[in-house]
Predict the 3D structure of the following.
Amino acid sequence: MTYIVTLTPSQIAKNEPDWLVAQRFTKGLPTELDTSPEGTRLAFLVCDNRAGSAGSGRKEFSERGRFIIWVGSVLRINTVGPVDRSITIEPMRSCPEAVPLDGPEGILAALSPAHRAAVEQALSGSAGYCGTETWQALRAALRQSHPELTPYIDWLLARLNPVVFRPDDAADRAWQEQKDAADSLTRLTDFPHSALAAWDRPLNRDDTYLAGLIPEPFEQSLIEHDVRVGLGDMSQLFDGWRRLSDVLCDIHVLEDSTGRRLEIVNVNATPVENRLGTDMIYYHHPTHSFVLVQYKRLDPRGKEYRVDKQLRGQMDRLEKVSQLSREPARPHEWRLAQDSCFLKFAYWRDTATSSSDLAHGMYLPLSYARLLLDDDCTLGERGGRIINYERVGRYLVSSEFTDLVKLGMVGTVGTSVEELRDLGLQRAREGYSVVMGLETSEETPRARTTRVRKRSSKERPKVTSYSPPTAQESLFDIPDS
């Protein structure tokens, strides 16, 4: 179903301040309305201003008529009592321009009589819907007369129809791990997961996960302003990185209205069939600290991992990574332990999609993993070593690991951006998909802790999400060789 919700100007004036913050709206449905899950599950919010009211306060409504003003996706259908139902629209975005439905230049005039009648029927009450064929006709008319709305619709549809990863395909497995790493970075930094939720497979199997990202649409003038203000005199990043013949690299930027910023840099330097796995590296620039998580896939059925020489060799190299840390000299540099590298033994169900859910699994600090491999608890019947939930016993889950990192309780001390830059490129050339996240802000360690402990979405600032152009500036400055 493609839903159409019709509101008066006064109703919009009452609700729009909340929509701008929460990007969510719950609307009751007529009892007789079909709520079949078939169709797009898009929702259009229409202002009915045929009476000429000025109650909305919007300058677009100086003329009478009906206008599409918001578009969103139906997150869920709610049952209220024995018969009453409602829909929750989330996320929702304000249209770049109000789209007129009426008049010779309106959308309805571009539809055939049958489809026009179907849309009019949906508009006749407070909420209605149109079927698949009418939606296709409506979509074509919107693309033709209001192309500025197309990125919003494409982004919402991609979110509503996540890709199903194929566990028997090497590229899908690699993208699945990189996706989990990117989503983990948004959780570590309290940026919205929805910013990375719209994705489709890149044409090149060796490409990064971010190469398939469908960016959330924003006004170009807003993005350009944020780039100029947020980056200042920082050095260039991707001109140097992208000139390297053996590197595929993509970046996506999240920035909130306070100036706090997350750059996600995704790098592949080997063919996917030769890939050793995925590294997630999160760097908190104000405290010069990073953590590295290396992904290991558990067998989805037995949920176990059989240890081999390759794992032990990779752990040896991670020990060297941990040496990029110095002794703490200030209170905020104190850590619970010296571990800055973790292994995530993860598994995905066969039906896993590109939704925002993180992979299930165990986070093991490197030093703890060493102890496990030297203990009888991981010794198999034939002398091999096995990692699984029963044998490990104690481990961190995603939420516990995330809280430790966000509170600055784990990670390196005194690691420079240059050391991080060299590490990321080195790991990619060793055969890993690397997903690096760099958080920058003016926050003090105390202010960071205060923000982390605030959970209300209404208190969170507005976020801009975009993929910058090639000649973008960044804290990173990757050499050409």
